[in-house]
């Protein structure tokens, strides 16, 4: 269970100071987007590899899907995906960053383990659900977030679940960055979806509410709060000024 005395260093006040209005510049120059046919192919591939066609699909959520699932689900439980860990290693040139000030987004990268939440998806209209999910999780080529079947350990034993993992061959893969560098990026980056600080704040606070403590994210949120405080004190950025 969550310790009652544990409080986030990163607050809504910090987030408000990073948040600003950013116009969506659209896909980066030269970027190729997935087509309807591409999404059809991904849905067909995932369904073809479905481990138990007669049972509901389990979806493994580790980040924004926890606080903004946007998908109907009928049950949820905590599970651990071993061999994968949360990492801010995806360069964001859009959404939560811009071309001139790229952000970082969190994905599952190889190594370690990740405690997250399993959602049971309804059996009805499954193809439409996966289409909606895939269009949310990846838009550009080459794909950054690869859908695949993961083994997730639960209290009742291992289950196969659909998850999204980092494509290390993507040009947007940032690799293993020092936590201090990640904090410096999240403390200033913002796109038309919001800031990196907001993304981190929502993720950590919702994980803690569910009794899931990620020590790496906990240290990161403290570093981001300290970085924002330092930037404000030094007057390095004009906060809350519209950009576009």
Write the layout of secondary structure elements.
Blueprint: H1 12-18, E1 32-33, H2 36-48, E2 58-61, H3 64-67, E3 75-92, E4 103-120, H4 126-137, E5 140-141, E6 145-154, E7 157-166, H5 179-186, E8 190-191, E9 194-195, H6 196-209, H7 215-234
Antiparallel strand pairs: 1-5, 2-4, 3-4, 3-6, 6-7, 8-9
Helix pairs in contact: 2-4, 5-7, 6-7
Which second-level CATH architecture applies?
Answer: Roll
For the biggest sheet, the summary is: 5 strands, antiparallel
- Mean pLDDT, rounded to whole units? 92
N- and C-termini, Cα separation: 43 Å
Gross geometry: globular
**Computed CA radius of gyration, to the nearest angstrom:** 18 Å
Helix percentage range: 25-40%
Which topology does CATH recognise? Hypothetical upf0131 protein ytfp
SSE string, helices as H and strands as E: HEHEHEEHEEEHEEHH
CATH class (first level) name: Alpha Beta
Please mark out the parts with pLDDT under 50 across 5 or more consecutive residues, or reply none.
238-244
Total count of helical runs of at least 4 residues: 7
- Strands of the widest sheet, in order across it, are 2-4-3-6-7
Strand content range: 25-35%
